[in-house]
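Meet my pick.
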Amino acid sequence: MKHLRKTRRLTQNQFAKLVGFSRQTVNMWERGKKIPNSQSLIIISGILKVPAEYFFVREYSSKNNKTR
């Protein structure tokens, strides 16, 4: 999420306002301390212009690459 946010040249504050959450919540998402719910992921994916599945596939792919 952080990479996509930065690619779109959004600060955490700007992104937080767009998704309707606090900057602290966005920071926790990016650090993996919290996970957005499915409805939030739909909003996030729309703002970042990726399908919601992007977040699941990327995580799955990363885990598979580490075990090989």
Remarks:
- Residues 2-67 form a domain with the 434 Repressor (Amino-terminal Domain) fold (CATH 1.10.260.40).
- Helices lie at 2-7, 12-19, 23-31, 38-48, 53-67.
- The chain has one domain: 2-67.
